[in-house]
Amino acid sequence: MSQNSNSDDIDLSRLIARILRQKKIAIVTAIIFFVIALVYVNIANKFYQTTTKFVYQSSTKQTGTLSALTALAGFSIGSGSSDDGSAYMEDIIKSMDFLLLFANKEWFIADTNKTADTLMPITLEKFWKIEIDSSLNNIEQRLQAAIIKKMLKQKYIQYEQDKKTGIISLITQFEDTKLSYDLNVAMFEELNNTLLHKMRFKAAENRKFIEGRLEEVKNDLKKSEEILLRFQQQNRSGNDPSIKLQESRLIRDVTINTELALQIQKQYELAKIEEARDMPLLDVIESPRRALIHFKPRPEIILAISFVGGIILGLLFALGFDLWHTERKKLIEQVEKARKELNA
Question: What percent of the chain shows pLDDT beyond 90?
Answer without folding.
Answer: 25
